[in-house]
Amino acid sequence: MDAETQENHLKAYGVTYWTLERNLKVKWLLNYRGGSFLLPDADIIRRECQIRGVSFELISDAQAEQILDEIASPAVNQEAVVLEKAPKIAVYTPYGKQPWDDAVTMVLTYAEIPYETIYDEEVLKDGLLLYDWLHLHHEDFTGQYGKFYRTYRSAAWYIEEKKEAEALARKLGYNKVSEAKLDVALKIRNYVAGGGFMFAMCSATDSFDIALSAEGVDICEPMFDGDGSDPGYQNKIDYSKTFAFKDFILERNPNIYEFSSIDMTRKRRIPKETDYFSLMEYSAKWDPIPTMLTQNHTALVKGFMGQTTSFTREQIKSNVLVMGENKTNGEAKYIHGIKGKGFFTFYGGHDPEDYTHRVGDPKTELDLHPTSPGYRLILNNVLFPAAKKKKQKT
Question: Which residue range is the domain that position 170 belongs to?
């Protein structure tokens, strides 16, 4: 899985997942040649690699033991983690999702990793209990329809999506979309606290935490929910209820395409040519979890924008790990934390290979980006639940 020898990093994750589906164990060699996978030698696995265009090397049992002995040495920052079971994956996504919408569904499809889609109805009926890993589509859990009001309120797709969201909320027994979304967020919170794994990108990150913090508080203006917001609602925000963020200031203006001060999009002054974020290095033997989540063939990853591009460093809770950051701009891009018995990862931005991605843009063709470091971070999270976990030290 290093930069020099692997022709298709993304599909390599798919082959690894495919192997786990067949009840075969895999060793993930953390920090060894870009986070390589040690798979059992079998004709069907070789053939699958060849079909999918994944580079692989055949080694003897003696060579494998030698590699594992080297990795086990206290002198090197490497570790071999056993992957035991293919996690069952759910993608929380609205019905009739637009083709430009989600990097995770694109890379899961490209890597040929199976997943199922669920939405509010299934979540509220405790459907999450069937899954090991949950991805949150670029959702707005605050009930403000993505804060698209100023630019797109007359667009047919915006009007239709608003109408569909209101109809679904009524069907589920709610008077407002914001009330339905809050209960969905609470169900997801409980899923994670009970031992689930949650991965979110772009606006699903901060809007999820904002919804939790505003439980019982109306932060929506009339164009979103038909009545006024609570007076002085900023002072009623409860940061103790959030997963990752603290001390943020909500954006009160409904015409501004922003949720809060968490997001760095409007504060950024970085030219595209120099927009990169660096991945942190952790002790593979003592901190295997963040080490798994940062495996890559480069420590420097191209930045990319989104409604929520990145996170204000000062507004991240102290118990949350910043795994990727742009130090020059004081922003975090990729963060991870523990909630109860479960884990969550937030990744800022919309599409790792589409820098500015706008509504209506065509989807990214991943055949053109088979070695994408930005997309590898997503797939690290997909395999993470398959690993036998050790207690995190950092």
Answer: 89-386
